[in-house]
Specification:
163 residues; mainly alpha; single chain; rod-shaped
């Protein structure tokens, strides 16, 4: 494969990744809204969709990395940043696309951190609610045991009003 065609394929892969990353960004925003409305089922469905997109991104990354290594070896350089953009003008476009993907990745990471923090807060609230429920259950159990032990000697009486 020629260097120019590999660079072209790298650009195609970055275009696909950019589209998926944009989708991932919007999915992450959706998750944020589901967290605010406490719609757990919708949140989990969005998580599944995000995972599918991330799996596809992983496949793209795998191919990109393989081709990136191949083109570096063919050029005999350590990084494409050191490549001659006059000789390979497509590299300028490649660099721009990498930068755009990095920017959207940063936005997604920030949203993910916010969502993670909110999920942690909600989880802590659920844990506190569970502790309160357990304490109420324990108190009710103690009361019923106390009542039972105080009146356990009392026998029930059956009164027959019919004759």
């Amino acid at each position: 494969m020629r260097i120019e065609s590999i660079i072209g394929r790298l650009i195609e892969l970055l275009d696909k990744k950019a589209v998926l990353m944009e989708m991932l960004y919007w999915m992450t925003l959706e998750q944020k809204s589901f967290l605010k409305t406490e719609s757990i089922d919708s949140f989990m469905n969005e998580m599944k969709k995000r995972q599918l997109a991330m799996d596809e991104i992983d496949q793209i990354d795998s191919e990109f990395y393989r081709l990136y290594i191949e083109v570096k070896e063919m050029m005999g350089i350590a990084s494409l940043e050191h490549a001659d953009t006059k000789k390979y003008p497509q590299l300028a476009s490649l660099h721009q696309k990498v930068q755009a993907v990095m920017e959207i990745t940063q936005k997604i990471q920030e949203l993910d951190e916010q969502n993670k923090s909110e999920v942690s807060e909600k989880f802590e609230q659920v844990k506190e609610d569970m502790k309160k429920l357990q304490a109420q259950k324990s108190a009710a159990s103690k009361i019923s045991k106390g009542y039972a032990s105080k009146y356990n000697h009392a026998q029930g009486v059956f009164i027959d009003n019919k004759k």
